[in-house]
Amino acid sequence: MSSSPRPLGSPRSCHADTSPSPSSMLSSDPFQGRLLGPPPADQQWWDGLLFAGPIVVRTGPEQAAWVGGKAWRMYYHGRDSEDWGMGVHAQPGTPFGRVGMALSHDGVTWERYHGPLPGGAIFDPSDDPSAFDCVHVGCSDVHLMPDGTWLMLYYAGGLDPGRFPAWPAGKTALGAQMRCGIATSADGVTWQRAKTPFLNIGGAGSWDELAVSWPRVTALSTQRAMGRGQAEDCVDSTGGGRVQEMEGAKAEGGKLEGRKAERGKAEDMILASFADVAEADWLLTYQSVGDPHAPGHAHVGEGREVERVPESVPQYCYTIGSAAFDPCTKKWIKRGSCIRRGPIGAWDEAGANRRHVLPLAAFGPKAVQKWEGLHHQGKKGEDSLATGEAGGPPVLLMFYEGARYNGTYAIGLAYCLDGGETWDKARHIGPEPGGPILQPRFGEEVWDNMLVGTPHLVVSGGEEGSGKVLMYYTGVGEVSGYGRVRGIGALVWEGGDSGDLGKWTRLVVD
Predict the structure, then answer these.
(1) Which of 131, 222, 304, 364 has the fewest beta carbons under 10 Å from its own?
(2) CB-CB neighbours of 242 under 10 Å
(3) What are φ and ψ of residue 279, in 5° steps?
């Protein structure tokens, strides 16, 4: 059956507006705009219970030939059981556990791909009870490398006890202590994993001591992610104990192919693939969770005071951190937290977590011109976007998921001018710092009226800045007669003519 995408509702419906939008009057179908819903109840799919976290990759003909000629792949995670691996009972509401894939010819109409693992999954927890990823896995990033290798970054939990958000000290559960892993594949379907995490939890007292999860890498176009000349002269950059060694990566240099031929071990090949990524111009961001009053998590006011969270709300928050790779020492340098929670009452009062970072230039010259104008004409004391100094690092945009303590999620925007070290929430994009630019459709009988999150953007068609920009997201809602529902949807950027990064419209399929 042929189908064509069209916008749903007005652009304003994707800004910070809690009133019913015109989209609700277009159709009585509460699932309009949902591109991927749950599988049929009578089929034993791997994600029959919960699913989330779309990561969309557009491939060429050679890769499409592996999967029936469809060039668009959506990697995501989910589960079909109340239990994770090793018989561990899953934390209620958590959608991660296994990884699978859906396919599309146009990025809009999707169908599940039946992979080689039970239920059609393509990546499962390890069957080794001593492994850091033997309980659950969640996919957070996928890249097709120039040599044709597929690279997956994921987060996982094992049998080490840890603490989930809002749990009191001393209460622990298996699978809660998450770490970041890596896997590679020749076809994007059958994967080999490194046995050790490439990013570990921080030491006692650090802001990321409870967990590190949702790793993503972003290309930087004008300088190394390390910056400051460290890649050239190999100066000591251990940063006072903030270094996280990429465990198991012992390669001393040379090309990826040379390392593969010399050692030939799957573990070394996987880590070497990631080392080559890291040695290029890439930035790593990740998420942790912790005490909302602790250093690295606390909201700091304009007077540098730490805001106290009332005891009436859960005592946790999400925080985004970043890291850069030192190609000389083969170590990741944790730069610390970079996006923290907003003040109580803000749209992101409970913190920032899942995110997608990409250069401002990806949105084209109109977007660059608009933010240059905002930067030079902005009101005194207000932050705005700029294009950076000539010859310096690119301006980076972070579309991030913000949370409230009432359980709702929305998507906002932050930016960086120095290659990934210092981030600020955009103040011109919505009513509050960071936006939001997309909220749930509160009060409507639709599938995403409770939360929207896990943004992943794809620029397709034409050269950089001249193509279509899609933002895929996870939505959850309550619909009369259906109860709690979820799905994956997409927005199309409508700001190409104006450069307005807040102008997005939901897609539906006729």
Answers:
(1) 304
(2) 16
(3) -70, -20
The pair of three-digit structure tokens given for residue 112, joined into one six-digit string: 């599940």
Place of tokens 């309980």: 135
Of the listed ranges 25-39, 161-175, 433-447, 456-470, the least confidently predicted one is 456-470
CA distance 474 to 485: 11
* Spatial CB neighbours of 329, under 8 Å, sequence gap ≥ 6: 234, 237, 238, 243
Residues 410-459: tens digit of each pLDDT: 999 999 998 888 999 998 888 999 999 999 999 999 999 999 999 999 99
Backbone angles phi, psi at 476, to 5 degrees: -135, 145
Radius of gyration of the chain (CA): 22
Q: What residue spans define the domains of the chain?
A: 5-509
Tokens for 71, please give them: 């060039």
Q: Are 220 and 281 in contact (CB under 8 A)?
A: yes
Give me the pLDDT at residue 24, please. 39
Distances (CA, A) of 422 to 202, 267, 400: 20, 34, 15
User: 10 Å Cβ neighbour count for 452?
Assistant: 25
* Amino acid at the residue 209: E
Using CA atoms, how far apart are residues 262 and 270, in angstroms rounded to an integer? 14
**Residue 317: exposed, middle, or buried by beta-carbon count in 10 A (0-12, 13-18, 19+)?**
buried
- What is the Cα–Cα distance from 110 to 205, expressed in whole angstroms? 44
Q: How many whole angstroms from its chain centre is CA 17?
A: 24
In 3D, which of 188, 322, 332 has the Cα closest to residue 249?
A: 332
State pTM to two decimals: 0.85
Give the neighbor-by-neighbor strand order of the sheet with 192-193: 136-144, 150-157, 178-185, 192-193
What band does 129 get if pLDDT is binned at 50, 70 and 90? very high
Which residues have C-beta within 8 Å of that of residue 352, sequence separation ≥ 6? 318, 319, 320, 339, 340, 341, 400, 401, 402, 403, 412, 414
Give CA–CA dist 412/399, Å, rounded: 6
If DSSP states are collapsed to H, E and C, what string results for 388-440?
A: CCCCCCCCEEEEEEEECCCCCEEEEEEEECCCCCCEEECCCCCCECCECCECC
From its phi and psi, is residue 227 left (phi > 0), alpha (psi between -120 and 50) or beta? Answer: left
Residue listed under structure tokens 């251990």: 238
Map tokens 């290798």 to a residue: 149
69: closest CA among 27, 95, 106, 38?
Answer: 106
Sheet holding 110-113, edge to edge: 50-58, 72-79, 98-104, 110-113
3-state class (DSSP) for residue 463:
coil
| Domain 5-509 CATH class label | mainly beta
With cut-offs at 50, 70 and 90, classify the pLDDT of residue 474: very high
Tell me if residue 375 falls in helix, strand or coil: helix
